[in-house]
Amino acid sequence: MPRARSNRWSWLGAVLPPVFVFVVLTLAAEVWLRVRDVKPFIVPTPSRVFSAVREAPGDLLASTCKTAAAALIGFGASALAGVAVAIGLSSTRLIRNAFYPYTVFFQTVPVVAIAPMLVIWFEAGLQSVAICAFIVSVFPVIANTLAGLLSTDPALRDLFKLYGAGPLSRLWKLRLPWALPNIITGLRIAAGLSVIGAIVGEFVATELSGNAGLGVVIATSARYGRTDRVFAAILAASLLGLLMLCAVNLVGYLSLRRWHASEQ
Amino acid sequence: MRWEKTLMHIRLASILVMLCGLVGGARAADKVTIALNWVPEPEFGGIYQAQLDGTFAKNGLDVEIKPGGAGAPTWQRVASGQVEYAVASADEVVIARANGADVVAIFTIYQTCPQAIMTHASRGYKSLADVFNGGGTLALEIGLPYGKFLEKKYGLSKVKRIPYTGGIANFLADANFSQQCFVFSEPLAAKKSGGDPQTFLVADSGYNPYTGVIITRSEIAKAKPDQVSAMVKSLGDGWRAYQSDAKRANDAMGKLNKSMDAETFAAAAEAQKPLIQPPGPENLVLGTMTSERWHDLVGQLVDLGIIDKSKAPAPNECFIGTGGK
């Protein structure tokens, strides 16, 4: 059956184009850097970066796990707090007008400037790094969730009222499901940002014992002129962000596929 | 009449200027840049002094001083050809050479590395070993070679290590907090803010790289040896002048760096003097470096695993010359 076949191979259509782009760009960079004879301490060739990965894959994995722990805690906190704050803000216009401007603080605060103070308040360590990840990733969740909660279809709202649904059941059965696509969008943005926040946090607020997180690997390798290791760590960070994004997409797909146009 | 006399003076002066121009014009000044690795502070006093006194110009150099800040090390900028000269530290030179960058040191500002650990006098520590065994928190910049050295020598199981990000706020806020410092910089600021700083030089632990070294590319040293000698001579003269009277350069640097007041400039310039003055025999001149110390440093960086033994540079290729005679 032609339809069955197209389903079986459809994943190829999703995977092949980005892989193709990756291979082409990597090869182009390799050739260009070699032809121009760019010194490795300025920009390393992709082959050098890959051999830096192969040099100590276990260490890189351990570093990625350490950063991932902080990023995930920060991301989880952003998801919970972001949605909760958005529900609070959506309750009345007065509350929204009073508090919404202050949530922008999270988007504009330079985390590098605040991180040294986190060390004074919370001590250096996983908690401070996770707070950095939270600070930079919470705002997109608040903003997107709020937009979703405020855009409930008026006709459906009236229908719920007509049937005498209370505020809690309206929230749970109508407004939150309606906002779900927006929440997922907020979480997608937050996933990548939480990795960035964790790495910046590690520059400043980590404890330098045991395994080094990716931020520490980046800072140390840069100082030792090992740009290949810097890029290997950046590669690992990108993969971590991608993995988290995929997880969010999966949740989005599972929760939206049966009723929302974006996942059909 | 009076104005006629003035006119004659002006004529005489302009003739003199023309003559100077003719003499100077015999060799056009070499236009070069020195990139600093921090904002203008007394650690660069002699460089600004050489500029202000016209010492660079006298030696045929037209020098632009580019202040730096926190961020990328300067050796990459020299190696990639963005600037001709820069201030770095000796361990950076070794690391750069191990990574295939052709930079060499031509002059050192400090004979004794001014890096130190600042702790609270109230702790009653007697040595660096006490700092590492006394508990509390120790803030060192991530990836500092001397941090790794101290870690290896004293162990870090008893002290909580965190990244140093600048300033003295954490130090003042926490009586169990120790941090890295330039021995003539942060401790002065801490004292001024009511703290009780006590310092231990890293150099006393056995790790003492030349610090504030002026670097260039070997290629420049080979192609333009006269330019490099002129630079070394100017730096030597500049630093000698600054060591005897720092006021003029301090005033000039104070205009560029308003976050440090005149009093602190003067105090730091005074405090750093013994670290700059070469020890021992009279024939050791300002800025001089010895092969033995480069040899020790390369060995230490290999032992610490910061550079590969197979890529370790020969001590003699890390520096040239004998300082600013």
Describe the protein.
- The complex is a heterodimer of chains A (264) and B (325).
- By secondary structure, chain A is mainly α.
- Helix content of chain A is 83%, strand content 0%.
- Chain A has one domain (55-263): MetI-like fold, CATH 1.10.3720.10.
- Chain A has helices at residues 2-35, 46-55, 57-91, 93-108, 111-122, 126-149, 154-162, 167-205, 214-223, 227-256.
- The model of chain A has no long low-confidence stretch (mean pLDDT 91).
- Chain B has 325 residues and is of the alpha/beta class.
- Chain B folds into two domains: 26-112 and 209-318, 3-Layer(aba) Sandwich (D-Maltodextrin-Binding Protein, domain 2), CATH 3.40.190.10; 115-205, D-Maltodextrin-Binding Protein, domain 2 (3-Layer(aba) Sandwich), CATH 3.40.190.
- Chain B has helices at residues 2-25, 45-52, 55-58, 75-79, 90-98, 128-133, 145-154, 169-173, 186-192, 218-223, 225-244, 247-256, 262-276, 291-303, 315-318, and strands at 30-35, 61-66, 85-89, 103-110, 115-120, 137-140, 160-163, 177-182, 197-201, 211-217.
- In chain B, the strands form two sheets. Chain B has a five-stranded mixed β-sheet. A five-stranded mixed β-sheet of chain B has the order 7-6-8-5-9.
- The longest helix of chain B is centred in the N-terminal third of the chain and has 24 residues, at 2-25.
- Chain B is globular, with a radius of gyration of 22 Å.
- Residues 19-26 of chain B have low confidence and may be disordered.
- Chains A and B meet through α5, α8 and α9 of A and α4, α5, β7 and α8 of B.
